[in-house]
Amino acid sequence: MMARPRSPEKRNAILRAAVCEIAQVGLGASTARIAQGAGLAEGTIFTYFPTKEDLLNELYLELKTTVHEVIHRDFPHDSQLSARIRHIWTEYLRWAMENPQDQQVSVLLNLSTAITPATKERLASSHGAVAQTMDELGQCGAFRDLPRGFASAAMLAMQEAMMSMEAKSPRARARLVDQTFEAFWRLAL
Fold first, then answer.
1. How far apart are CA 112 and CA 100, in angstroms?
2. E strands within the chain?
3. Which of 18, 81, 87, 90 is the most buried (most CB within 10 A)?
4. Residues 1-28: pLDDT tens digits?
5. 32: domain range?
């Protein structure tokens, strides 16, 4: 007896339901609730993802790949460092504010010990210009003597603060994006 082929629609439904459930209750979200959110029997999840950890790792890859595709679109490869960093800053914030649940879950997964080094390694190959630009920033000014990756972590922290302020004053979004970038850039130099 042949196994039925897996449906990309069901896989995507599971991943979307996982985002919704994790955004509501955190990484302790049950596979039963995720399956329910996807409109599937709980056992169906395990046809697509053998374990919950596999589901979390695939969700991490999916979310990170999506945001990197957004940032890489129209990336100003030949521009000065400040223009490339501004592009990363602006495009990430645009994605995050348009997809708040995805962004929230991405941050949770980024901190999770369930995400394996093998998963992070798979993702590293798709970082391209973003990783190169952030590494370059890490060699500048205030970041120069700090551990590798600190510039990225500092950027994310300031972006989180900006989104928190923007939530209180949505009409000030464009101004906040610009002002907070300028503050981050001054910090970097």
1. 18
2. none
3. 18
4. 445 568 899 999 999 999 999 999 999 9
5. 1-50
| Statement: residue 123 has pLDDT above 90 | no
Residue 64's nearest CA partner among 138, 115, 7 is 115
First-to-last CA distance in the chain? 64
Quick one: pLDDT at residue 69? 93
The domain spanning residue 15 has which CATH number? 1.10.10.60
| Residue whose token pair is 């900006």 | 162
Q: pLDDT tens across 64-108, in order?
A: 999 999 999 999 999 999 999 999 999 999 999 999 999 999 999
Residue with tokens 């997809």: 99
Interhelix angle for 100-111 vs 52-72, to 10°? 120
Place of tokens 């901190």: 111
pLDDT of residue 4: 58
Q: What is the DSSP letter of 4?
A: P
